[in-house]
């Protein structure tokens, strides 16, 4: 019995010395817990004969006291060393510079466009990215057999029973014109920046997900001169003055006359936007009398402007998530 108690104490002291803050309580349970051998010995002492009882009792109780003292000491050691390791930190050292993000070039250009146009009195309007067929096409005078509705150009979300229940990802921001004109009376002056989606054969200047900003002004006596002045104003504002800007005759079902605006980029003309005078039929579709009012509209590709501004050579980089590209700004 005496030898057994001695060896328990030895074993316990060795285990306690090896324990860390987490395993110390396991070690304590192993040597002085309810199921520990020493506890069993202490419990069985009452069955011993009187002289033996006293000897074994004091031996076992002393052993338990020693183990408890060793546990307490180890606990204090561990607490002190934890405290020391905290104190080793030099809190006066400069901190690690946190990695902070930044605005994407597309957001920067969008904000500049908003700045350049709100100072001319344009208000910001929004429309949904999942749009009704009627607003994306019909009201804009884009006939049912127009190639732009083709499944090759359009992401259809729901084929409903008619054009007010069929839903697609908007292919341009022009439906915001319709929503706004249906809800407001002229004079109107709005811009509508946002995401647009097309089933594209992607290349360096064509992405399937890209951003446009629509502009619309409707009032009495609005002419191409107003359109041109506004466009030159915001292109200069974003790209700086002195760029070669070209207005080229074009066709859109919802404007007449229509133009495409190009800017000279790397010795080539890069198309920036479509624009024109709002087609009288579109005005009639939304209940505005074309004899009384006229207007202009434009839809500018925001990534295209960002390409020019930052000298980026591929529009697909904007959504590619390549950190080598993202970190350059
Ligand atoms: C339109 O989307 C017409 N809604 C623009 C418009 C509005 C005309 C109002 C008249 C009046 P278009 O498909 O050309 O037109 O696109 C307009 C601009 O969006 C283009 O000039 C180009 O800058 C940009 N764009 C078009 N497709 C892509 C694409 N796949 N990737 C990146 N930018 C694009």
TrEMBL record:
Main location: cytoplasm
Annotated GO MF terms: ATP binding; magnesium ion binding; phenylalanine-tRNA ligase activity; tRNA binding
Keyword Glycoprotein included in the entry's annotation: no
The UniProt record lists the keyword Protein biosynthesis: yes
Pfam families assigned: Phe_tRNA-synt_N (PF02912), tRNA-synt_2d (PF01409)
Enzymatic class: ligase
GO biological process, one term: phenylalanyl-tRNA aminoacylation
UniProt cofactor(s): Mg(2+)
Subcellular location(s) of the protein: Cytoplasm
Subunit structure: Tetramer of two alpha and two beta subunits.
Protein name: Phenylalanine--tRNA ligase alpha subunit
Native organism: candidate division Kazan bacterium RBG_13_50_9
